[in-house]
Write a structure and sequence with these properties.
Shape of chain A: elongated
CATH topology of the largest domain in chain B: Rossmann fold
CATH superfamily of the largest domain in chain A: ABC transporter type 1, transmembrane domain
Radius of gyration of chain A: 37 Å
CATH class of the largest domain in chain B: Alpha Beta
CATH topology of the largest domain in chain A: ABC transporter transmembrane region fold
Strand content of chain B: 5-15%
Number of helices of chain B: 21
Shape of chain B: elongated
CATH class of the largest domain in chain A: Mainly Alpha
Structural class of chain B: alpha/beta
Strand content of chain A: 5-15%
Helix content of chain A: 55-70%
Largest interface: A-B, 144 and 144 residues
Distance between the termini of chain A: 61 Å
Structural class of chain A: alpha/beta
Oligomer: heterodimer
Distance between the termini of chain B: 64 Å
Number of strands of chain A: 12
CATH architecture of the largest domain in chain B: 3-Layer(aba) Sandwich
Number of helices of chain A: 22
CATH architecture of the largest domain in chain A: Up-down Bundle
Number of domains of chain A: 2
CATH superfamily of the largest domain in chain B: P-loop containing nucleotide triphosphate hydrolases
Radius of gyration of chain B: 36 Å
Strand order of the largest sheet of chain B: 6-7-8-3-9-10
Helix content of chain B: 55-70%
Number of domains of chain B: 3
Chain lengths: ~625, ~600
């Protein structure tokens, strides 16, 4: 693995990793983990009885496991010391009882704990989704959809793993460990102390290997991120790699990272194996110690006859010691699970903490204006990014019932105007009133519900046509739906696709762009509100569909206040007033004839349109 | 989750055979690991055997024997540590080695695959197969192998030793174990079904979330957040339910397996105790018997888990194989090394792609001639086939035989790497790698650290009119670009990609609308630079700008996969076809932009 080949990113990641010494990092992590766990607590609270019930069962299930070696001792004593068949049978019955009880308690405990865990994580998932519904649209402009979906899915799943894997029940392990120690001490405190001398070297070795394993694990995480990033880039840019004939060089670079990843895994395997086997071996050594000391002690006490008394105890100890080391062995695995769950929790809480609320309530000194306008923009200036305004001091007033067409080249600010109107983005400068009331004083939902919207790129949800037409309504009125469909000329289409129960695939991909448009018109009509925003699609459709869309648009706009981002000449001509946007400003205003006569931008745009169509 | 190969057995069996082939290079190490596993098990089994003697000695009062037995166990513990550690390392490392090989094979094949494959399989899908599915395969060859071998040794060894102690008691003690086979079958099948249901419920949940986010504007504009939340909550509840069904099953399985294993202990106490009372068994033998049984608990429990590892590993491998076995469309079988000046000709080129089982023609018989050092512009609307035509020249898509020629040689007879070296290509969507600007430009260079490298990089950047802007970047040429670096504008990216294509001084350069995001003035500047440097180079330019096309010696207009107009700028303008309409329109647009500029300047 040659270092000279390392990409700058690897170098950067390495230097970043070096900044924190491992001890510091560990300390910081521990502190942080606690804070994260604390934030999870409120989600556990509503299900506290489930948790409490599971917790109560925990020591019980430990106890049922723990009595078994003791019963084994009693069994051996009954045959070696008492030599009585009756005593033996009594032990057999007790043992069978313990087994049955362990089975029931274990099942109940797992079930309750998992149920509680599932409910907790489901609540958290619901909360995350709720938060997403309240984030402002600008957030999604910056954040890829995939990343946000991951928060709702993978990250929450990873948290659920905390409960499913039994990492949370690590507490049971602790109880078991304590129980074993107590049981052993009660059985024979001297032999117990001898057995426990094996613990300090064990702790030392475990700690040593665990530290190394952890550093290897960190290395693995960095490498695997590099590996995946590199592969994803190669897949996305495969055409460039091929065009330049750099397949071999790129593959070599990837293979270097791959080798580093493999080597880091080798290291992790080495320490994991050492850790796992040392626990096993020390447990065996522990048994040998107990045996040795039992013999020495029996030799002190008497010259031979007492040995039989210790047989049952030694056998029980053998069993206890085996049981003692199982949870210790699993500790490392559980620790890893907890770590990765907490990393997910961190990302989830980061999303929950995002301070970018959609349409926040902003009380201000904005009086309601009595005006002869349904919608009024006044000196609106707006920028998505600071210093790059897309609207400059725009003032437009739309009278109730008026149809206004917004015309202009792409990027002239037409769609931004409609977004501001729905308060999808927050107005910073100027004033924008709907029914005389500033949009910032409206309840966002009430404001949005007062508009029907036909977007440029119609989005359909998977499900039925009914659900898509009556967006969000629990009990849609089928008669009214059909009426809307008839009026927009989409009824035949819906009938052909199995009526209102007809299936809509993901993103509505089983409908053509034109069909989706028609459905969107029906959707808007069904809404039946006074104001409509129509963002005409630019996509080319055949003349037949074009004609149907025209009729549907006319029907949808009829008798309503309409703001139309217009591309079709027919729609533009039919508007009461045309507003020509140019580079974020209102450049011209008037009817089709007036603007043509003026010979300005509109006249030129009109010429362009007719030149190509 | 269920790929088609899951349902029929034969592809999976073939998969198993192929999977074994990956183990072949590591057979030696694997055999060594298995040998060590055998030793580990032998040592493990020796412990109860030694203990048995010790316990009988303890009962009999011969304490010297007990002490020496204890020391023997100590020695065994030390040996165990070494063997167990080593065996795990050997076997697990083989798992990692196989993963390493699979990954390398994967990237090699990804590099060979063409656009058809990437249309069918999205990046996310490829990545999920290269990560989680590959991980499942590794678990199968690492953990899976270890567990299977270990369980066989553990069961075989323990049963043999138990038989040696007392065949009668063995029969009794092992009586519950056949139940395990039954349980494994019972739970194995249901576990698979329930896990799939659970996966599906989670996938559904992800779909709802994905859809909600993709349609966020509609959700907001129609204020249907509450309805959406309800829809999500339903899916969420369904996922919890599916998960709990899995929990119930697992919750039964583990205690059940544990119960079966513990039943053996119960029987040993009962029957063994009676045998000791009847003096047909010593107490030491009883203890050893119990110890052997205890050694079987873990392999028994692991059985349930092993089932799912094998299932998932095989399914994962099938999914990885879909990439490894994908047939490349472009084969590198040619050997000719191009040496000519770079004349390109296309002779009645037809090309179609398969979509949903239907052949969709893209190019319908295209003829072209570009003399060496000449220049040609290709124009046409979206979907006219101009990008496909451009990609077919350097064989970035499967170019048919005998249709495209470089200096008279059929491009399919030319060595692929040499062809792509001779025919430079820059695409419309500029793809930059997340490294420095310098390394991006030097991407095609064999010696990016050579003595004259910097000079060549800078001159290419200058030719693409990006050098000055690079110098204003925070770290100049060393600036990182991409997700973690500086966000460049579309025009800047395009010009860096252009510089990358110019660097190797190819005889022919194919530019697929590489300046769509560059403003007209800069484009003109680049084209002038190309003209200057173009003495030794053939230029094929796909563009939608008349101003750029007019600089080329000849122009063709593609429509619906066929050339509908061809000639010089002046000829085509005079002809009054598509080209002249476009020219008129762009002329108007340019005028409009100028008036706008004037208007802005006149404003205070």
């Amino acid at each position: 693995m040659s270092d000279s080949k390392a990409t700058p990113e690897t170098k950067r990641a390495e230097s970043r990793a070096r900044l924190l010494t491992s001890a510091q990092a560990e300390q910081a992590e521990r502190h942080y983990d606690l804070a994260l766990l604390k934030r999870l607590l409120p989600y556990a609270k509503p299900h506290k009885w489930l948790f409490i019930a599971a917790m109560i069962l925990m020591p019980l299930s430990s106890l049922m496991g723990l009595v078994q070696p003791y019963l084994l001792k009693r069994g051996i004593d009954s045959v070696v010391v008492e030599k009585s068949e009756g005593a033996l049978m009594q032990v057999v019955y007790l043992f069978a009882g313990a087994l049955a009880a362990e089975f029931v308690v274990r099942f109940a405990q797992t079930y309750l704990m998992q149920l509680a865990g599932q409910k907790c994580t489901a609540d958290l998932r619901g909360d995350v989704m709720g938060k997403i519904q309240r984030l402002r649209v600008g957030y999604f402009d910056r954040t890829p959809v995939g990343r946000v979906v991951t928060r709702v899915t993978n990250d929450i799943d990873s948290l659920a793993e905390l409960f499913a894997s039994g990492a949370v029940t690590a507490i049971t392990d602790l109880i078991t460990l304590v129980g074993i120690v107590v049981a052993m001490l009660l059985l024979d405190w001297q032999l117990s102390l001898v057995a426990f001398t094996a613990l300090p070297p064990l702790a030392l070795l475990v700690n040593l290997f665990r530290k190394r394993a952890r550093s290897a694990f960190r290395d693995i995480r960095t490498r695997v991120a590099q590996l995946n990033a590199y592969l994803a880039e190669q897949v996305n840019g495969v055409r460039v790699v091929q065009a330049f004939g750099r397949e071999k060089e790129c593959a070599d670079e990837y293979k270097d990272i791959n080798a580093a990843y493999r080597d880091a895994n080798y290291r992790s395997i080495r320490y994991d194996a050492l850790l796992y086997s040392v626990v096993q071996s020390i447990s065996v050594a522990c048994v040998a110690l107990v045996l040795y000391f039992a013999a020495v002690r029996a030799g002190w006490v008497s010259a031979g006859a007492e040995g039989a008394l210790y047989v049952g105890t030694v056998v029980a100890f053998y069993d206890y010691i085996e049981r003692f080391f199982v949870p210790i062995r699993d500790l490392a695995t559980k620790y890893t699970i907890i770590q990765s769950s907490l990393a997910s929790a961190e990302r989830v809480f980061q999303l929950l903490d995002t301070d970018e609320d959609d349409a926040p309530h902003r009380p201000g000194d904005r009086p309601v204006v009595e005006e002869e306008a349904a919608v009024a923009f006044e000196d609106v200036t707006f920028a998505y990014r600071d210093g790059h305004p897309v609207l400059h001091e725009v003032s437009i007033a739309v009278r109730p019932g008026e149809h206004v067409a917004l015309v202009g080249a792409t990027g002239s600010g037409k769609t931004t105007l409609t977004s501001l109107l729905l308060r999808l983005y927050e107005l910073e400068e100027g004033s924008l009133r709907v029914d005389g009331k500033d949009v910032r004083d409206w309840d966002a939902k009430a404001l949005r519900r007062s508009f029907a919207v036909v977007p440029q790129d119609v989005f359909l949800f998977s499900g039925t046509l009914r659900a898509n037409l009556a967006l969000g309504e629990l009990a849609p009125d089928d008669d009214r739906l059909w009426e809307a469909l008839e009026r927009t000329g989409a009824a035949d289409l819906v009938r052909k696709r199995g009526g209102l129960d007809g299936r809509v695939d993901e993103r509505g991909q089983n409908f053509s762009a034109g069909e989706r448009q028609l459905l969107a018109f029906a959707r808007a009509l069904y809404r039946d509100v006074d104001r409509i925003i129509l963002d005409e699609a630019t996509a080319n459709v055949d003349s037949e569909t074009e004609h149907r869309l025209q009729l549907a648009a006319r029907e949808a706009l009829e008798g309503r206040t309409a703001i139309v981002v217009a591309h079709r000449l027919s729609t533009i001509r039919e508007a009461d007033r045309i507003i020509v946007m140019h580079q974020g400003r209102v450049a011209e205003e008037g009817t089709h004839e007036e603007l043509l006569a003026a010979g300005g931008i509109y006249a030129r745009l009109h010429k362009l349109q007719t030149a190509t169509s | 989750m269920a790929s088609p190969s899951d349902t029929s057995a034969s592809p999976s069996e073939r998969g198993d055979k192929r999977l074994r082939a990956y183990l072949r290079p590591y057979e030696g190490r694997l055999a060594f690991g298995v040998l060590l596993l055998l030793l580990t098990n032998a040592f493990d089994k020796a412990i109860p055997w030694v203990l048995q003697g010790a316990i009988d000695a303890l009962e009999g009062g011969t304490f010297d024997k007990v002490r020496s037995a204890a020391l023997t166990v100590m020695a065994i513990a030390a040996g165990l540590w070494i063997f167990r550690t080593r065996s795990r390392i050997e076997v697990f490392n083989v798992g990692r080695d196989v993963e390493y090989d699979l990954r390398n094979e994967l990237i090699d094949n990804v590099h060979r695959l063409g656009p058809t494959f990437f249309r069918k399989m999205a990046t996310g899908e490829i990545m999920s197969r290269a990560t989680s599915d590959l991980g499942q395969v590794r678990l199968l060859v690492g953990f899976g192998v270890l567990r299977v071998v270990d369980s066989i040794f553990a069961f075989g060894g323990a049963i043999a030793l138990m038989l040696a102690l007392s065949p009668e008691l063995t029969l009794y003690a092992m009586a519950p174990f056949p139940m395990i086979i039954f349980l494994a079958r019972f739970f194995g099948k249901r576990l698979y079904l329930r896990s799939r249901e659970h996966q599906e419920a989670l996938a559904k949940l992800a779909d709802v979330a994905q859809e909600n986010l993709a349609g966020v504007r509609v959700v907001r504009a129609y204020a249907i957040e509450d309805a959406e939340q309800r829809r999500f909550d339903e899916a969420n509840q369904a996922a919890v339910d599916a998960s709990m069904r899995l929990v119930v099953l697992r919750g039964f399985m583990w205690p059940m397996l544990l119960l079966v294993a513990s039943l053996g202990t119960l029987i040993v106490i009962w029957k063994g105790g009676e045998m000791v009372l009847a003096e047909r068994l010593t107490v030491g033998e009883l203890a050893a018997f119990n110890a052997y049984l205890a050694q079987l608990v873990w392999p028994t429990l692991a059985l349930g888990w092993l089932l799912s590892v094998v299932q998932r590993g095989r399914a994962g491998y099938d999914r990885v194989r879909a990439i490894l076995d994908a047939e490349p469309e472009v084969h590198s079988e040619g050997t000719v090394v191009p040496t000519g000046p770079g004349a390109m000709s296309v002779d009645h080129l037809e090309y179609s792609v398969r979509e949903d089982g239907e052949e969709v023609p893209i190019l319908k018989g295209v003829d072209l001639q570009v003399p060496a050092k000449g220049s040609l512009a290709i124009m046409g609307t979206v979907g006219s086939g101009k990008s496909t035509l451009a990609a077919l020249l350097p064989r970035l898509a499967p170019t048919p035989k005998g249709r495209v020629f470089l200096d008279g040689e059929d491009v399919t007879d030319i060595d692929l790497r040499e062809l792509r070296r001779a025919v430079g290509y820059a695409q419309q969507e500029p793809f930059l790698f997340s490294t420095t600007v310098e390394r991006n430009i030097a991407f095609g260079m064999d010696d990016p650290d050579g003595p004259d490298a910097r000079e060549r990089i800078e001159s290419a950047a200058e030719e693409a009119c990006i050098l000055e802007e690079i110098e204003t970047l925070p770290d100049g040429m060393e600036t990182l670009v991409g997700e973690r670096g500086v966000q460049l504008s579309g025009g800047q990216k395009q010009r860096i990609a252009l510089a990358r294509a110019l660097l190797n001084e190819p005889q022919v350069i194919v530019l697929d609308d590489p300046m769509s995001a560059v403003d007209a003035r800069t484009e003109a500047q680049i084209l002038r630079a190309l003209d200057r440097a173009g003495e030794g180079r053939t230029l094929i330019l796909v563009t939608h700008r008349v101003a750029a096309a007019s600089r080329c010696e000849s122009i063709v207009v593609l429509h619906d996969g066929a050339i509908v107009e061809r000639g010089t700028h002046a000829e085509l303008c005079a002809a009054g076809g598509r080209y002249s309409t476009l020219a008129e329109r762009q002329q108007l647009e340019a005028e409009l932009a100028i008036t706008e500029d004037d208007a802005r300047e006149s404003r205070p």
